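Quick one: sequence plus L-histidinol SMILES, need structure tokens.
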Amino acid sequence: MLKTYNYNELSDPQLKQLITRNADSSNEIGSVVEEIISNVKANGDKALFNYAEKFDKISLSSLFIGFEEIQELAAQVEEHEQKALEKAFYNIHKFHMEQLKDEAKVETTIGVTCWRELRPIERVGLYVPGGSAVLPSTFLMLGIPAKIAGCKEIVVCSPPQKNGSINSYIAYCALLLGIKKVYLIGGAQAVAAMAYGTESIPKVDKIFGPGNQYVTKAKTIIQSTTNTAIDMPAGPSEVLVIADNTANTAFVAADLLAQAEHGADSQAVLVSNSQQLIDEVNQQLQLQLNELPRKEIAAKAIENSYAIITSDLQQAMQFSNMYAPEHLIIETDNYESLIPEIINAGSVFLGHLTPESAGDYASGTNHTLPTSGYARSYSGVSVDSFVKKITFQHISKAGIKNLGPTVEILAELEGLKAHANAVTVRMREL
Ligand SMILES: NC(=O)c1ccc[n+]([C@@H]2O[C@H](COP(=O)([O-])OP(=O)(O)OC[C@H]3O[C@@H](n4cnc5c(N)ncnc54)[C@H](O)[C@@H]3O)[C@@H](O)[C@H]2O)c1
Ligand SMILES: N[C@H](CO)Cc1c[nH]c[nH+]1
Ligand SMILES: [Zn+2]
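Reply:
Sure thing.
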């Protein structure tokens, strides 16, 4: 059962508390992760073998699997599963190809031309989660934009499975993506290995991918302590559903549970202007929860979740913007009028027939998205995440005559004479 709060009765501190998730205020996760990072930095591969034993309960003979093993594993995937992975690949590829657009050159003033060109980030690291569930779909969500961008070196890490290898679906995705090696490393240690490099793992320029709180904390630490960048904090999954009395309560409950089953630390929030809808969704949650193989996990996440009753849908949207959900689902007949009011959300799902899980797997949009309120300032992964946009300019004779005096005045007013001179010496030669 979702605890219900009345939006109009909440104080500011209560609201603040409700929208805070996975804060790690006592630094429990942070201190574990800091130790893992310094151990990997100091001891390289040796630390990685030890962490595989400690956290993944596996004694590895090698830290990676190569192309032959990938091919053997991929051959175990059944035909209907291959087709589903290929369909997802195709749709994700089609959607992401649109993101590779050249920008026009701009003549900002006579004789002065400015433009931007894309260059791929050369060495990227992809983290594919594999703790409580192995997520081949995440491999596609990261690998496809990396390939479209043209990244030269793509390092892939995923936790080793019980067989001491990867699962066959990850192997099949590797073949689809043309990736010939997968490192068997999970958690914060994978992030540290890709940030610092070890005897076996190449150092990369940027690390991508979602993960649990250890992975996400490691990414935020290495972002501020090394020259390796990250895509965004993409931690435990979350969803916020806005629904009114036009919604199908079984659909709403199914959508809440779809994210709840990711992990006990996931959150599913329902916001509605109808108490009757909230009551009926609660009944549906109980019915559907019992049918789920991962019911213990999902039930814990639901305990950690809640419903909010608002006066109207505008107020529901106000709460959603404060919460800044990774996924926002709007299950109302009149969803179109709410679109302009959306300010903060990672990815939005509109209408009664648009389950969030379509976006998780196969509609085409990327499922690697900011969590814990980071949708206020970050976008989800896209081709843009894998490129740099470098600015260029060229100034002609007419251009330096035209713009030179402006630059000289601005340099003088900042007291930077050498800046002015770089223009003056050229103007003298004209
Ligand atoms: N935001 C997104 O875009 C997005 C997308 C997909 C998945 N997710 C989230 O990714 C997460 C995946 O988590 P997961 O745990 O299944 O897999 P994971 O691969 O992120 O983490 C597994 C690793 O965590 C490490 N670990 C486990 N317990 C530890 C401990 N006590 N101390 C230190 N390290 C420990 C181990 O090394 C293990 O290999 C879920 O929370 C899911 O909701 C988010
Ligand atoms: N919902 C996750 C993003 O938070 C992505 C995912 C992968 N597989 C299933 N779901
Ligand atoms: Zn999901």
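The radius of gyration is 25 Å. The pocket of zinc ion (ligand 3) is lined by residues 237, 259, 262, 360 (CB under 6 Å).
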